[in-house]
């Protein structure tokens, strides 16, 4: 049974509609939100369905830790440095340090190396073969959730 791309509900038939430039397969009740391109289809869209199975992470892949800004701030404060002091030592702008600490800027490799050298903090985490991520059922959000239609 096809799934409405707005509500996420299983419906007997979907209608192909263009909504603000995006072609979608929707339940008949949402067809009025855009221009109908094709009347009811009883087959699901041809793209693969995303499930809730674990996706293995490749061996020894490094990723930036999620709380990198907080870790940097704690390390800087532990050394008794102000953002301005650290910026001068690293030959960076104070605003760059502030943006990284607040999480608004993801540091590139060059900046990560400087933080490791000056603060002694490693912001990368290795993932191994046996680690994987399995999303919870509640992780699945549809456009209907976002719009408050459910």
What is shown here, in short?
The protein is an alpha+beta fold and about 150 residues long. The chain is about 30% helix and about 20% strand.
Number of strands: 7
The amount of helix comes to 25-40%
Number of helices: 5
Looking across the biggest beta sheet, what order are the strands in? 2-1-3
Structural class: alpha+beta
What is the H/E string? EEEEEHHHHEEH
What amount of the residues lies in strands? 15-25%
Distance linking N and C termini: 19 Å
Question: What are its keywords?
Answer:
2 domains; 150 residues; alpha+beta; elongated; 3-stranded antiparallel beta sheet; single chain; 7 strands; 20% strand; 5 helices; two-stranded antiparallel ribbon; 434 Repressor (Amino-terminal Domain)
Description:
This protein has 150 residues and is an alpha+beta fold. The chain folds into two domains: 46 residues, no CATH class; 67 residues, 434 Repressor (Amino-terminal Domain) (Orthogonal Bundle). The chain is 29% helix and 20% strand. The protein contains five helices and seven strands; from the N terminus they run βββββααααββα. It is elongated, with a radius of gyration of 23 Å. The chain starts with 13 loop residues before the first strand and ends with a helix. About 4% of the residues have low confidence.
